[in-house]
Each structure stands twice: as structure tokens, then as C-alpha cells.
Amino acid sequence: MGPIKAGEASLIKFLVHNGMVSSDEARTAAQELERQENGASIIDLLERKGLIVEEQVAQKLADRLRIPHVDLPPAVALNPL
């Protein structure tokens, strides 16, 4: 995949700053992300490792951005007309 994108790097810093992952866990995940070719995000990778829960990250981000967090139900199939 190559170097980590700026958005991913910012998210890693956010996760460490908010105590959601340690610096070592973040560094290891970032290195793995650079080697991956499947397009997974840092959230995907850390969640697969059992280090974070995406919903908790969404809540922390909403709190930090001072926007409401909305927990939507799983997607519902639409009936075509």
C-alpha cells in the first residue's frame, strides 16, 4: 500500500491521544497498514486485532467534533419499484 495517508495518520494520533490504543499498538498497526494491499483502513485493522470497537471510535470522534452521534440500525434492503 505504501505510506500512510494523512487522514489515517491523524486518526492514529487521535486514537493514541484518547487512550484507545497505546503508542506501540499504533506503531505496529501503522507498519502493518503500510504493507497491506487490500485497502483496509486503520480502524478495520485495529478492530480485527480486537484493540478497538468501531462504534466507540465513532462516539469519541463525535464527542471531539461536538456533533451528535447517531447509531443507525443495519442497512435495510429497499424494494425496487
Structural description of this entry:
- It is a single chain.
- This protein has 4 helices and no strands.
- By secondary structure, the protein is an all-alpha fold.
- The longest helix has 13 residues, at 23-35.
- The radius of gyration is 15 Å and the shape is globular.
- The chain starts with 5 loop residues before the first helix and ends in a 16-residue tail after the last helix.
Radius of gyration: 15 Å
Average pLDDT score: 87
Quote the beta fraction: under 5%
The proportion of residues forming helix, as a percent range, comes to 40-55%
Q: Provide the structure class.
A: mainly alpha
Main attributes of the structure:
single chain, 81 residues, mainly alpha, 4 helices
Walk me through the topology.
Blueprint: H1 6-17, H2 23-35, H3 42-48, H4 54-65
